[in-house]
UniProtKB/TrEMBL annotation:
InterPro entries membership: BrxB/BrxA (IPR009474)
Matching NCBIfam families: YphP_YqiW
Family: Belongs to the bacilliredoxin family.
Protein name: UPF0403 protein YphP
Entry-linked Pfam families: Disulph_isomer (PF06491)
Amino acid sequence: MSMSFDQYMRDMVQPMRDELTRLGIQELRTPEEVEASLPDAKGTALVVINSVCGCAAGQCRPGVAQALQNDITPDHLYTVFAGQDKEATAKAREFFAPYPPSSPSIALMKDGELVHFIERHQVEDRSAEEIAADLTSAFDRYCR
């Protein structure tokens, strides 16, 4: 029995996708879905650039989960998966200038404009609790 590489990767990353989607975060898997969601999102939108790395598992996704327990949260919750949904991720990153591509990373947008961004290096060296505190502070500031 053989399994294709693509099927193997889908099976491997599905739990990583589920970790965010079970929080109510909508996956954007194509450039068209990104284009239909991000630029015209009224209010605030959180965009998590997910990845398979250890810092995504240990700090990023748990930090996002904790932050979404805050009383004030973004109006829209989205995620793209770097390395898996490559075209969707590339399209989403167009909205995060001047920041270079990094994953995992987290963007907060307001009325289609980037207002807060957490880069990979800010994920790697911090705990989930610190990331959650950073996000909740941004939520309190921008999501009212």
